[in-house]
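Design review, sub-item: ligand-bound model
Attendees: FS, YL, KQ
YL presented the inputs for the magnesium ion complex:
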Amino acid sequence: MSRREELLAFADTVKGFMPRNEGLALHHYALEHSSVGSATWLEVGAWCGKSAVYLGSAAEETGSVLYSLDHHHGSEENQAGWEHFDPALVDPHDGRLNTLPTWQRTIADARLEATVLGLVGPSLVVARHFAQPLDILFIDGGHGHDVAWADYGAWTPKVVVGGLLMIHDVFENPADGGRPPFEIYVAALESARFIDVAAEGSLRVLTRVN
Ligand code: SAH
Ligand code: MG
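KQ shared the predicted structure:
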């Protein structure tokens, strides 16, 4: 089994909300877009590391680094009483969700610790102190209106011309899911900074043109 096959099979075993076809598309477009060299990629929304393994596999192959950003306390829909709550992820110390230990275990088991680097904190605070231009940005953080728009405003200007912007959970039909990821996807296109490259399930892939 090749290293790539090993990682893509391992990704299947990681907890998360990334269907396999969309994870493979993340990996595919990241790889297709990149030439070997030291590029900087960042994902907003790490959870337990599933998308980080799909992207991390492509990052490793290209000598890139993926920052995987999360405060690790879950989004609204992950909290007790909501649709995507997982009691196994609650830290008995303070009763809050904590996905960081699981994320760390995922990245260690994948042997991606020199490729996927954790950034622990609120997205906007990190963005304010993050000056490095991004060759790939994957937005999969909070899906509420304010949080999604804040991520769009704070992170998309950091994508280099020629770089990729990927957005997850884009549902045009409100019956399929919350609309903010769709709204920021439309905003990216209407800004004329980004054009469509591809779509797979709820994943949208765009590239920055100016
Ligand atoms: N990309 C992951 C899933 C991410 S789920 C995968 O496919 O495996 C969304 C994550 O966004 C949650 O872990 C939540 O804690 C995080 N999140 C939501 N709002 C955030 C914010 N403002 N700052 C940092 N992380 C945030
Ligand atoms: Mg998602």
